[in-house]
Amino acid sequence: MKREKPQLIINGRRLDGRAPQDLRPIKIEVGVLKNADGSAIVEIGNTKVLAAVYGPREVVPKHQEQIDRAIIRCRYRMLSFSTPGERKSPAPSRREIELSKVIREALEPAILSYQFPRTAIDIYVEVINADGGTRTAGITAASLALADAGIPMLDLVAAVAVGKVNGVIVLDLNEVEDMYGEADMPVAAMPSLKRVTMLQLNGVLTPDEFRQALALALDGINRIYQLQKEALRRKYVEASE
Amino acid sequence: MLPNASTVIKRTIAVPGDVIVVDKDTDVEGSNLYKIDENRYVVTSISIQDLEQEGEKKKIRVIGLKGRYIPKEGDTVIGIVSDVSVTYWVIDIRSPYPAILNASDYLGRPFNPATENIRKFLEIGDVIIAKIAQFDRTRPPLLSVQDKGYGKVTEGLLIEIEPSKVGRVIGKKRSMLNMLIEETKCDFVVGANGRILLKCPNSELEYIAILAIKKIEEEAHTLGLTERIREFILSEKVKRGLIKYEA
Questions:
Q1: CB < 8 Å from B in window 107-166 of A
Q2: Does the distance separating the beta carbons of A154 and B16 come in below 8 Å?
């Protein structure tokens, strides 16, 4: 199936015209759903992800509850029309179950779950349009939805992927770069506390390349983090005008 | 706003992850803060952050804007009966923890389920005003109605707002609530869980009171709210022909 590998970087520019250290255009909106306690929609290039948070609320089924903290449940899902070409089956795939866990574990260090023992916090991440970087967009959206729901958090979590494409370290890979690149490394972090909450690496990087890639990722995360905070504040500034 | 010892110099919106640095001239107050080290705090939820001047000292006050209601002992809450057991009712108080009201407490005497039917007193859907008698997060909160003003609600209008904005509806030293009572002639019972019970002389005033409370909820984070709401109520009254326009 795999076709001839395309030339991904021409004259120092990527296929969509970006420089290696550029992010795709980002659009963030908070509080988009009325029924959810908190919600956010994040668009990074062509990737579009909606996140909704409910809770803290009663745990159903009861046996799942923890006596010392809130349990956090996360479901990542790609809608059937989110991918190009063949329709994606709506049944949860192996990949979706794994990403649900990855997103949950990236957010857990930020949530002060011990403040609400015997409750549940539910996070739903729905990918509306997929073009690479859905897990990182999912984390970015989910942390905003958590903040919008008023759930106490140490910091917002922002995430971005870095990778190696045609031997160049690039920031924020899209679908094509992810598919044909040599390496893909999603990173999530809490910038104020300078803590990394998720780091995965798919492919091969030398130790030097890894350091370079991580620095680039953290730089990208900082930029997304500022946009996140701006979007959260905007909701209230607009209301007062 | 009532004259107060402290004045707000600056109001900003704080979001999770904002770091507040304090020095020896600055105090910090707020329940949604996390201490990182000796003089650095991180804000944990969307809040308003006020910088206040109190004589020589400065004070940073952080007040949360969103979040579920967490029961606190002594709070007055307005609940809705959601389930009936043999000797107690399960009450929905808009918190993650459903509350319990014992029949013996409600009746103020021993209750024998063998001779009496509990459903005679309260049914599912009934509204009660109660006090949180006991809560320690290990067991469901226990309610009590053994005090003046508590018990079953038979008339009035119930509205719901964000629980974290209840403080604004009451205001500093009850300023907002007193203004509302004065201007709308309605009777207000404000539950700490964000439910408000209204009893009004007529439907026009009732409607104005609802609009005013919804406006308070929307603009809870702005300064000088009490005066603006007073003007809003006046303009609504003029619009409805309840009073004549006064310059």
A1: 110, 112, 116-119, 147-156
A2: yes
Beta strand pairing call for A183-190 and A168-171 = unpaired
Please report the ipTM that was assigned to this predicted complex.
Answer: 0.88
B187 with B140, same domain? no
Q: Which domain holds residue B168?
A: 157-239
Kindly report, residue by residue over B98-121, the tens digit of the pLDDT.
999 999 999 999 999 999 999 999
CATH second-level architecture of A17-240? 2-Layer Sandwich (3.30)
pLDDT tens readout for residues A45-72: 999 999 999 989 999 999 999 999 999 9
Give the domain CATH number at B235.
3.30.1370.10
**Whole-angstrom Cα distance, residue B118 to residue B106?**
10
CA dihedral A127, A72, B48, B50 (to 10 degrees): -140
Closest to B96 (Cβ–Cβ): which among A58, A148, A237?
A58
Helix (H) or strand (E) segment spanning residue A218: helix A207-240
Domain identity same for B12 and B28: yes
Give dist(CA B75, CA A31) in Å, integer.
29
Any residues with CB less than 8 A from the CB of B115 and at least 6 apart, and which?
A: none
Tokens of A112: 């002060």
**pTM of the full structure:** 0.92
Examine residue B2 and state whether it is found in any structural domain, yes or no: no
Query: For chain B, what is the domain count?
Result: 3
Chain A positions touching B68 (Cβ under 8 A) are: 37, 55-57, 116, 150
Residue of chain A nearest B13, judged by CA positions = A233
Where in chain A are the domains?
17-240
| Residue B70 to residue A229, Cβ atoms within 8 A | no
Distance CA A132, CA B141 (A): 47
Instruction: Provide the total of helices (H) and of strands (E) in chain A, helices listed first.
Output: 4, 12
Name the residue among A58, A150, A153 with its Cβ closest to that of B164.
Answer: A150
